[in-house]
């Protein structure tokens, strides 16, 4: 599922959002401050900068896809470049996610922004000069994906730098709202620029968006992201911190099992959006290709409404564990409706409900993760969970060819929907799931450390977590 990079089909969004993605509380040095009436303006500035970079990334993705196919005429070239780009992003999360726990988070975001700007500029220069080389373009795509893999977990782990514990869910909701706007506006903007003005203008839009975003981020004081002097910053090597990220997630059983469930769901959702839906629209219901855009926009609208209104209304009325289960159920029903019905009016409604379901999963689980994880482990935990939840996505894509050959598109979608629907019940079997989900935000601070001390005590930087 996700909030993310690389081509961003809806199936990758759960993974990109950390498989279950929300925020955290205030650090000790901010805990004495009164809670703000809303979201900190500095945080909104950072989130808007991420929105601009994702919006520009949409333009870049579609422009590069069109450029590659136009220059080579080879789907194989394009598929290999996309595969390398996706693999780079997925692997960069656990391999580089430790940096956000060891170094100044704001410095990392600023550096990532300028590196993104350089890669966008190089891509634009190549397009203006008419110099297409698949190796060069592929390398730039991989660099951009690695930057996204570093940058995305920081979207969640920086929230405690700006928000009190009781504002965490609100901060995640604003993050999700901006992500949904980028999903709604990105494809329309990118296709309009490419078809109306050309590939070069779409790449120029990416460069301008990153430039503005980088300028906004440059105004954020770097001192905000400095390691807390009252705690011991990790002194371990990068390799040992990568290992500790996996060890902590495995030791925190509630996160480990939720990541496994997210992995199974992404096994279904990623190929659903990238492979099955195009085939379903083209061969089963035989609608024009623009109908795919309508379905994706309906999903994005569901994310927008879910994050902006529905999750806020449910907060305090429905326990978080039930919201998460309902979210999985809505995603499963989304697939089941597609597999069993072909109504042009019902299908967009099903995708809208699927988008709402994604927010019912991501916002509660991410909030709990951010609040309950010790601060010196937060970035690694988010990065590692995102990696685990995304790792099955390409496997699902490979498996779909066999499923489609023997079962057909519609039946395959129906069975995948039934699987996701069953997983909505499985979440209640996750150890301590209900306990953490029903705890108040203000009582979740370092709750994982208290419940699973063995997951942190043997790591080389555990002393800084206490």
TrEMBL record:
<keyword id="KW-0812">Transmembrane</keyword>
<dbReference type="InterPro" id="IPR011701">
    <property type="entry name" value="MFS"/>
</dbReference>
<feature type="transmembrane region" description="Helical">
    <location>
        <begin position="256"/>
        <end position="281"/>
    </location>
</feature>
<feature type="transmembrane region" description="Helical">
    <location>
        <begin position="193"/>
        <end position="220"/>
    </location>
</feature>
<feature type="transmembrane region" description="Helical">
    <location>
        <begin position="381"/>
        <end position="400"/>
    </location>
</feature>
<keyword id="KW-1133">Transmembrane helix</keyword>
<feature type="transmembrane region" description="Helical">
    <location>
        <begin position="328"/>
        <end position="361"/>
    </location>
</feature>
<feature type="transmembrane region" description="Helical">
    <location>
        <begin position="232"/>
        <end position="250"/>
    </location>
</feature>
<feature type="transmembrane region" description="Helical">
    <location>
        <begin position="406"/>
        <end position="430"/>
    </location>
</feature>
<feature type="transmembrane region" description="Helical">
    <location>
        <begin position="288"/>
        <end position="308"/>
    </location>
</feature>
<feature type="transmembrane region" description="Helical">
    <location>
        <begin position="108"/>
        <end position="132"/>
    </location>
</feature>
<keyword id="KW-1003">Cell membrane</keyword>
<protein>
    <submittedName>
        <fullName>MFS transporter</fullName>
    </submittedName>
</protein>
<feature type="transmembrane region" description="Helical">
    <location>
        <begin position="75"/>
        <end position="96"/>
    </location>
</feature>
<dbReference type="InterPro" id="IPR036259">
    <property type="entry name" value="MFS_trans_sf"/>
</dbReference>
<feature type="transmembrane region" description="Helical">
    <location>
        <begin position="48"/>
        <end position="69"/>
    </location>
</feature>
<dbReference type="Pfam" id="PF07690">
    <property type="entry name" value="MFS_1"/>
</dbReference>
<keyword id="KW-0472">Membrane</keyword>
């Amino acid at each position: 599922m996700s909030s993310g990079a690389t081509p961003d089909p809806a199936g990758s969004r759960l993974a990109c959002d950390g498989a279950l993605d929300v925020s955290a509380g205030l650090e000790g040095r901010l805990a004495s401050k009164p809670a703000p009436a809303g979201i900190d303006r500095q945080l909104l500035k950072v989130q808007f900068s991420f929105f601009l970079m994702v919006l520009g990334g949409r333009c870049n993705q579609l422009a590069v896809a069109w450029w590659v196919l136009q220059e080579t005429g080879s789907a194989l070239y394009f598929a290999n470049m996309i595969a390398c780009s996706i693999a780079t992003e997925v692997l960069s999360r656990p391999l580089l996610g430790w940096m956000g726990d060891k170094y100044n988070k704001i410095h990392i975001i600023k550096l990532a922004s300028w590196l993104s700007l350089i890669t966008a500029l190089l891509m634009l220069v190549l397009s203006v000069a008419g110099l297409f080389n698949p190796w060069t373009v592929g390398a730039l795509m991989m660099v951009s994906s690695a930057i996204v893999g570093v940058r995305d977990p920081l979207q969640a782990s920086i929230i405690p730098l700006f928000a009190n514990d009781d504002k965490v869910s609100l901060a995640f909701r604003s993050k999700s709202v901006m992500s949904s706007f980028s999903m709604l506006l990105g494809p329309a903007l990118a296709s309009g620029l490419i078809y109306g003005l050309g590939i070069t203008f779409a790449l120029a839009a990416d460069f301008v968006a990153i430039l503005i975003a980088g300028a906004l981020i440059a105004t954020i004081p770097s001192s905000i992201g400095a390691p807390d002097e009252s705690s011991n910053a990790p002194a371990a090597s990068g390799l040992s911190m990568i290992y500790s990220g996996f060890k902590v997630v495995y030791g925190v059983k509630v996160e480990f099992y939720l990541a496994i469930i997210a992995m199974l769901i992404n096994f279904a959702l990623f190929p659903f959006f990238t492979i099955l839906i195009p085939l379903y629209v083209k061969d089963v219901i035989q609608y024009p290709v623009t109908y795919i855009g309508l379905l994706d926009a309906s999903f994005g609208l569901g994310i927008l409404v879910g994050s902006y209104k529905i999750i806020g209304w449910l907060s305090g009325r429905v326990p978080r564990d039930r919201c998460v289960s309902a979210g999985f159920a809505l995603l499963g029903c989304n697939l089941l409706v597609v597999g069993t019905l072909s109504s042009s009016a019902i299908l967009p409604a099903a995708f809208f409900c699927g988008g709402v379901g994604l927010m019912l999963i991501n916002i509660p689980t991410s909030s709990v993760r951010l609040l309950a994880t010790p601060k010196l482990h937060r970035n690694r935990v988010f990065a590692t969970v995102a990696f685990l939840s995304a790792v099955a996505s390409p496997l699902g894509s490979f498996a779909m060819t066999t499923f489609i050959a023997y079962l057909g598109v519609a039946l395959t979608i129906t069975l995948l929907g039934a699987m996701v629907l069953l997983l909505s019940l499985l979440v209640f079997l996750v150890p301590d799931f209900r306990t953490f989900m029903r705890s108040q935000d203000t009582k979740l601070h370092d709750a994982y450390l208290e419940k699973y001390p063995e997951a942190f005590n043997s790591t080389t930087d555990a002393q800084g977590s206490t």
